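Sequence, please.
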């Protein structure tokens, strides 16, 4: 298995955006065709020893077994899945939360949907994703690191601006793409960590707001001349949205660590995607012409990309941010309108994963309208 299950993301987002039951069923049936059927060949929960979870990191063949394992843990707590999540994520000297940004942050995204929609089934999938995609960056969180920074700032946006101008990252890779991460870290990992260490978290709530805004800018203002949006930078918005959804369920003494993890993800992905310029005017200069959130929801529901499992998330996140942080001179509305006006597919894959053509991932106007 190469890809994650995005069924909860598209169904929950579609529900939030007002899909009726017929369209939700059609969405479900369409996405089901892309998923691997669970059969007798999959290892099941009895294969998992709860005392040895760290030995299973990265074993995708145990995906279903992990789900079984955590479902059983929920049953032991009489269905109190939030108690189980809190125990597994945050307890211990090296808490498992330190690896949440693995797999493009999908464990965070998945767990956020579990909290938003009060769904234990999504929660067990999210914990399974945490183990199958446990981030190699966890070591930077597990043990105190020496501070190699050459400046200090509370603005992650300033950090990325400095990364943008840092010549050490020039010509690191021929292509963008998350598969370039190992090459980037081998060549300039010290520089990545230097910029990461420069970011100081001094006001947790304000800096949570800032990463939501920054994620929106990264996802929705960096599209290319073909009006295709960077697939991996999109995740910096949806992961920020996930952190926001999980926020009140994160112990107060772990919130700085959660923000720090996000910062590390943002810097490393930004470098992998070859540091495209962030063009805030692409949002601020949008002419709304009377378009409102109802227009956004209706347009998204009727868009030809409506069965793309990533499409709705980029609409839902700005609307949720607006509900949390306010209108901000219609910044979030303009961001959603810009996306719906210009979206023609995804880019940023580079050479992709061997054996899987990422360029075929999701909806593409070029494919749909080619002759």
């Amino acid at each position: 298995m190469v890809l994650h299950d995005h069924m909860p993301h598209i169904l929950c987002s579609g529900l939030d955006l007002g899909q009726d039951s017929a369209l939700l069923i059609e969405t479900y049936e369409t996405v089901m065709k892309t998923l691997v059927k669970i059969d007798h060949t999959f290892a099941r929960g009895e294969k998992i020893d709860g005392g040895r979870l760290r030995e299973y990191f990265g074993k995708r063949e145990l995906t279903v077994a992990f789900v079984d394992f955590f479902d059983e843990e929920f049953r032991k707590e009489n269905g109190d899945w939030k108690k189980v999540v809190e125990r597994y994520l945050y307890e211990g000297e090296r808490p498992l939360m330190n690896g949440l940004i693995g797999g493009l942050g999908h464990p965070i995204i998945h767990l956020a949907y579990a909290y938003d929609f009060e769904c234990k089934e999504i929660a067990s999938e999210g914990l399974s994703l945490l183990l199958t995609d446990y981030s190699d960056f966890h070591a930077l969180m597990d043990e105190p690191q020496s501070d190699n920074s050459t400046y200090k700032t509370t603005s992650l946006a300033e950090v990325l601006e400095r990364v943008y101008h840092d010549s050490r990252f020039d010509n690191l890779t021929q292509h963008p793409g998350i598969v370039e991460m190992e090459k980037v870290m081998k060549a300039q990992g010290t520089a990545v960590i230097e910029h990461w260490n420069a970011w100081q978290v001094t006001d947790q709530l304000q800096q949570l707001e800032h990463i939501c805004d920054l994620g929106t800018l990264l996802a929705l203002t960096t599209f290319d001349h073909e009006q295709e949006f960077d697939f991996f930078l999109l995740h910096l918005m949806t992961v920020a949205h996930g952190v926001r959804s999980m926020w009140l369920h994160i112990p107060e003494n772990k919130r700085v660590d959660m923000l720090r993890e996000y910062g590390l993800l943002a810097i490393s992905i930004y470098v992998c995607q070859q540091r495209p310029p962030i063009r805030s005017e692409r949002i601020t200069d949008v002419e709304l012409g009377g378009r409102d959130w109802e227009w956004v929801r209706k347009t998204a529901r009727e868009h030809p990309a409506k069965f793309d499992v990533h499409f709705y998330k980029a609409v839902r996140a700005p609307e949720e941010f607006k509900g949390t942080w306010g209108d901000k001179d219609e910044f979030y509305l303009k961001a959603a309108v810009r996306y719906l006006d210009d979206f023609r597919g995804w880019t940023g894959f580079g050479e992709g994963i061997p054996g899987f053509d990422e360029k075929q991932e999701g909806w593409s106007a070029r494919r749909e309208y080619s002759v």
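The CA atoms of residues 46 and 96 lie 21 Å apart.
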